[in-house]
Amino acid sequence: MHASIQYSVSMMVMLIFLAACQQNNHNSVNKSTEFTDCAMQEAANQQFEKALTCIDKAIALQPKNYDFYATKFNLLLLSEQYDSCLVFLKKLHQLKPNNSEAYSFEGYLNEKAGNTATAQQYYQKAIQACKLRVQQKQDVFKNKVNIAFLKFFTEGRVASLNYMDSLSMRHPGNGFILDKKEFINNFNKQKFIEGL
Predict the structure, then answer these.
(1) Cα–Cα distance list, 81 to 72, 77, 85, 180 (Å)
(2) Which residue ranges make up each domain of the chain?
(3) According to a count of CB atoms within 10 Å of the terminal CB, is the N or C end of the chain lower?
């Protein structure tokens, strides 16, 4: 009898503990959402330091939420803190390895800074990350188009468009590929890099 009472008490304590953890997690999510909303509002008002403070608070509450880190990167980019962007991209690689978008931005930012050789290394890493995603059947068309876009930076417009043409031939009538081919055809790399 004593053992069953002890078991019941232990179970009740455990249930209370689990309920408290769920409540704390729910509160953490709600608070993170508030901080993210704050960051977006401050950014809309071009108060980037305040926006960064808000998103840092959201990250502190949910340190594994990749979207918060991506938001912080975008805020750093909008506030033209390019050196901080490059440092922060290392954190994105830790959270999400083989992140072609992060590698791409490391390339763009290094190119903007005049570090062409370093930029090329990151473009190649981005291409490899896209190829890995294609092999894993993740967003196949998107990643193939991303390869074509990155070829614009590594090999030039002609190579990029040739790659898009080969995609168009292998996937006739694919509207996504056709739209992105037009985008690449009209793309101005210099304006893009300057506009970062």
Answers:
(1) 11, 6, 6, 29
(2) 1-79, 82-196
(3) N
Helix axes 116-135 and 100-112, enclosed angle (nearest 10) = 170
Class of the domain covering 82-196: mainly alpha
Structure tokens that stand for 38 in this block:
């704050």
Instruction: Give pTM, 2 decimals.
Output: 0.78
- Give me the average pLDDT of each 10-residue run along the chain (196 residues): 47 41 55 90 93 95 91 93 92 88 96 96 97 94 95 96 95 91 93 93
Segments of 91-152 assigned E as strands: none
Eight-class DSSP state of 65? -
Residue 75 near residue 43 (C-beta atoms within 8 A):
yes
The rounded distance, in Å, linking the Cα atoms of 186 and 164 is 13
Q: How far apart are CA 182 and CA 168, in angstroms?
A: 12
1 burial (CB, 10 Å; 0-12 / 13-18 / 19+) is exposed
Q: What are phi and psi of 97, to 5 degrees?
A: -60, 155
Encoding tokens for residue 154?
Answer: 């590594």
